[in-house]
């Protein structure tokens, strides 16, 4: 499969500063970057975004994430590698990514569990991170962007 076009943000580069501002805001809230990385990876897996899943796993690995955890993100419920806070963030990421899967897209129990582990500012950052990840996933999947063949 080949890309249909360049990434839309490469074509309309004026949009990149806005994305940078969103990322900076999310990163400033105090949520561990490892948690945001897991959220990004899980949403990207759900959406079938090869470039985001690939780069997300590679970036997490560079920042010290373990193979066991990276390999198990898709099965986080059935593995012992994640904290309760990470599990709450992953559940929120799945619900917020799969909006059309149920009438109550993000059920109270998912939100309430996340709220046990994160304050309002941190929850805002996680929701913003999920939304930004989904934004990139949709750009990449729609235009058939590919993960790079060779990483240096």
From TrEMBL:
Q: What Pfam families does UniProt report for this protein, alphabetically?
A: CMD (PF02627)
Official protein name in the record: Carboxymuconolactone decarboxylase family protein
Gene3D superfamilies (alphabetical)? AhpD-like
Pinpoint the Carboxymuconolactone decarboxylase-like domain residues: 22-94
């Amino acid at each position: 499969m080949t890309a249909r076009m360049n990434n839309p943000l490469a074509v309309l580069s004026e949009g990149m500063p806005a994305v940078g501002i969103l990322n900076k805001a999310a990163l400033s809230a105090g949520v561990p970057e490892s948690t945001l990385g897991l959220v990004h990876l899980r949403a990207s897996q759900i959406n079938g975004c090869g470039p985001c899943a690939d780069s997300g796993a590679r970036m997490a690995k560079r920042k010290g994430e373990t193979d066991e955890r990276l390999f198990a993100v898709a099965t986080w419920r059935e593995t012992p590698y994640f904290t309760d806070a990470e599990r709450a963030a992953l559940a929120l990421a799945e619900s917020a990514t799969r909006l059309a899967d149920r009438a109550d897209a993000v059920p109270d129990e998912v939100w309430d569990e996340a709220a046990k582990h994160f304050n309002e500012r941190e929850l805002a950052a996680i929701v913003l991170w999920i939304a930004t990840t989904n934004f990139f996933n949709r750009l990449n999947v729609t235009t058939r962007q590919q993960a790079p063949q060779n990483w240096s």
